[in-house]
Amino acid sequence: MLVAHPVVLYMLVERYESLCTRPAGEDDDETRRRHREDLGTALCAATGTPTVEAALHVARRLLPGTGGEPGEPGEPPGS
Fold this sequence. Notes:
The N and C termini lie far apart (about 25 Å). By secondary structure, this protein is mainly α. The protein has 3 helices and no strands.
């Protein structure tokens, strides 16, 4: 199975989690929903999983230093 480069995977996780935790009102709800869906689709494709939850789980297992806990992405690979 092909897996995304660790830096790309890290960036996808960071962007997805950042978007999910950003306070309401900073973006239009429709824009936020669309971006979250796009990032979720990219995460699923990058990890070969059918759901965002599974993609995040796989990504955390693949990335060194992520801690495996939601909201604790750790340091980007190679930093």
